[in-house]
Amino acid sequence: MAALDVIDETFVLAGRAEVAAAFADPQQWRRYWPDLELTVFADRGEAGIRWSVTGRWVGSAEVWCEPVVLGPGTGDEAGGEEGTLLHWFLRVDPAPGAEGAPARRALRGRSGPAREALRRQRAAKAIAFGLKDALEHGRRPGEPAVAAASARA
C-alpha cells in the first residue's frame, strides 16, 4: 500500500469532454500539482488521464471523468442532461534517497500521513471547485445549459 493514498470526487454540471479538457494541457498540471512530476502513461480522452509520478514522490495519479445522466430524456434522447463525476486519485510513496527527503518530512510523526492527505484533498477540492465555477457558470441542475460565449458576456 502506498504511503499516501488520496481519493476525491466532485460532481460537475458539465459534459465530461469539457471536464477532461481542463486536464489535457500539460501546462495546467504544474499549476494544479506544483510538486508532482507527471508523465502520461494512459491518455483516455474524455475518460481522463493516468500519470506516472516521479521526483520527490513516486507512484501514480489519475483523473477519471465519469459521465452522469440526470433525469429522463425527451423525445429521441436516451437520457437527460449530462454531468460528470470527477474522480481524482493519488497513490505515492516518498522517492528513495535525498530526492524523497521533503516527502518523507511531510509524512513524519503520527499525524503526518493524515495531515498530508488532508492537504492534498483540500487542494483537489480547490481544483474541482474552480472547474465548477468555470464550467457551470452558476447553472443549477435542471436549468438549461449556458453557452460559453453568452456566459462570458
Structure report:
- The protein is of the alpha+beta class.
- 32% of the residues lie in helices and 33% in strands.
- The chain is built from 5 helices and 5 strands, in the order βααββββααα.
- A hairpin with a 2-residue loop joins β3 and β4.
List the helices and strands and how they pair.
Elements (H helix, E strand, L loop, with lengths): L3 E9 L3 H6 L4 H7 L4 E7 L4 E7 L2 E14 L10 E14 L6 H6 L5 H25 L11 H5 L1
Antiparallel strand pairs: 1-5, 2-3, 3-4, 4-5
TL;DR of this structure?
By secondary structure, this protein is of the alpha+beta class. The chain is 32% helix and 33% strand.
Shape: elongated
Helix content: 25-40%
Q: What is the oligomeric state here?
A: single chain
* Main sheet makeup: 5 strands, antiparallel
Beta-strand residue percentage: 25-35%
The number of helical runs is 5
